[in-house]
Structures are given as structure tokens and as C-alpha cells.
Amino acid sequence: MGRKRVLVIDDDRDALAIYGSILTLAGYLVMYEDAPMRACEAAGRFRPDAILLDFGLAGTTDQETAATLHADARCAGISIIILTADVALQKVSFPPNVHRVLLKPCEPRAVLDALSMLLDESAPSE
Q1: What CA–CA distances, in Å, run from 21 to 15, 85, 94?
Q2: Rounded mean pLDDT of the chain?
Q3: pLDDT tops 60 at residue 109
Q4: How many whole angstroms separate alpha carbon 84 and alpha carbon 75?
Q5: Running DSSP on this structure, what letter comes out for residue 4?
Q6: Residues 87-106: tens digit of each pLDDT
Q7: Which member of 25, 27, 37, 56 has the greatest number of CB atoms within 10 A?
Q8: Cβ(90)–Cβ(119) below 8 Å
């Protein structure tokens, strides 16, 4: 069984580094993307098992990002965990590939637990 792959999408490079370090230390293969418009292209190349998506990305609305990831064939079937500081998003209806909404700031353990629960249910990519 191969290592699980996680695509981290965030326009804050410090957040990318932090989440990347946490996930890498936990044994995940990690790819970073700081531009939401390139997220599907990155997913097509990397073929992640899950996407960790920051909401509030520059240049797009949150609903547009989720809808684009859901509709694009390169992202089809990839589970998404959303990170947001917006409490109201916990009550929003998202596409079916959005499995969790975690409020920021969130503890690294919360992110790892959410990924573990999500990916233990899916087949490995490698």
C-alpha cells in the first residue's frame, strides 16, 4: 500500500509550509498549490487522495472554488476538506466531494484526524 497523497491549496505561503510540514511528518505525500485557478491542473498531475482547501482564496469566491473542483474531471472523486475562519460555512451546502469543514485556526491534530478518517475509507492511489 502506498502513501496517501494530499494536495494543499492555500494562497498563504506560510500556511502551505505549515500544513505541508505537518502532513509530510505524518507520512503523506504532499503537493502545494497557491493559486485556485491551477488547482485542477495540479490535481490532474498529482492525483491526490484528498484536497485540503483553504477558503477565502484571493481571486475567487469560496463557492466557485468548490464548484470548480467538483465539476472538473481531473478532480472527480477527490475528497475535499475545507479550512475556513468563516463560521457560517459550517452550515453551507457543498458539493458531495466536500467531506469536512474545519474552522481555523485549527489544531494540527484536527487536520490529521480528519484526513485519517476520510482516507481510511478510500483506496490508496499508489
Answers
A1: 10, 21, 28
A2: 84
A3: yes
A4: 20
A5: P
A6: 877 777 777 788 889 998 88
A7: 56
A8: no
Q: How does pLDDT run across 40-51, given as a tens digit for each residue?
A: 889 989 999 999
Q: Is residue 36 reached through a cis peptide bond, with omega within 30 degrees of 0 on the bond before it?
A: no
Per DSSP, the three-state class of 71 is helix
Reading the block at residue 49, the C-alpha cell is 487522495
DSSP assignment of 65-77 equals HHHHHHHSGGGTT
- pLDDT, position 123: 42
pTM of the predicted model as reported, rounded to 2 decimal places: 0.86
Region for 44 from its dihedrals, namely left if φ exceeds 0, alpha if ψ lies in -120 to 50, beta otherwise = alpha
Beta bridge partners of 53: 9, 82
Identify the CA nearest to 55 among candidates 94, 20, 18, 110: 94
